[in-house]
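Q: what sequence does this backbone want?
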């Protein structure tokens, strides 16, 4: 059983009594031990900065549904796993770009927010430059839903400069069970730290039941 806590999607609050942990708090409590276990200790690790564009490829840091290979490859067939890594000073959150908008996932979707001392674990994918456009389209860049962001991600290979995406006009909203399932499966598939995966597994959902983008990912039973 999980310890008693309450997730509030990035917001602290509540009446006196048991401590209320937010999702970002849970995701940062194990930072030092997991970092050492992945050979990323900054005091001893040689740091190498890699370009986000390497010849015909670019590096993409995924932290939401694109953690799962089968989901990412629906529109971006060239994606190849490179490594996992952590993005420091950001927290994971879920929401929508408009307060009452619906999406193909029927709930909030993942984004990152600047937050000192927090961290987000994710997967770094190498994609062919031809899929820069398709990835932007998937993230709704042309519609103003997400904006591309260049970030430095800590990995066992050193610092890697990656493209990622941050939601515009963020409104907090819990994800659907289907979206959460894809995120958790992707985290397991690519070996994100166990403690981080446990935090993902206890995210509260909106209990939506019905068709969603999950139905397009035929490899998931």
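A:
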């Amino acid at each position: 059983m999980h310890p008693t806590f309450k997730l509030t999607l990035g917001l602290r609050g509540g009446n006196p009594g048991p401590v209320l942990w937010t999702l970002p708090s849970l995701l940062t409590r194990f930072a030092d031990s997991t970092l050492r276990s992945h050979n990323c200790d900054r005091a001893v690790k040689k740091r190498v900065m890699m370009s986000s564009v390497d010849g015909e490829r670019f590096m993409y840091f995924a932290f939401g549904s694109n953690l799962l290979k089968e989901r990412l490859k629906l529109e971006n067939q060239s994606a190849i796993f490179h490594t996992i890594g952590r993005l420091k000073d950001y927290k994971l959150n879920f929401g929508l770009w408009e307060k009452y908008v619906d999406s193909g996932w029927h709930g909030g979707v993942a984004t990152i927010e600047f937050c000192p001392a927090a961290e987000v674990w994710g997967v770094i994918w190498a994609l062919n430059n031809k899929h820069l456009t398709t990835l932007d389209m998937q993230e709704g860049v042309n519609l103003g839903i997400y904006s591309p962001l260049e970030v430095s991600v800590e990995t066992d290979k050193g610092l890697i400069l990656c493209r990622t995406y941050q939601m515009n006009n963020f409104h907090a909203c819990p994800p659907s069970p289907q979206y959460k399932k894809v995120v958790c499966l992707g985290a397991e598939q690519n070996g994100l730290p166990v403690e981080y995966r446990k935090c993902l597994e206890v995210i509260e959902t909106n209990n939506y039941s019905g068709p969603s983008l999950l139905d397009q990912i035929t490899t998931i039973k």
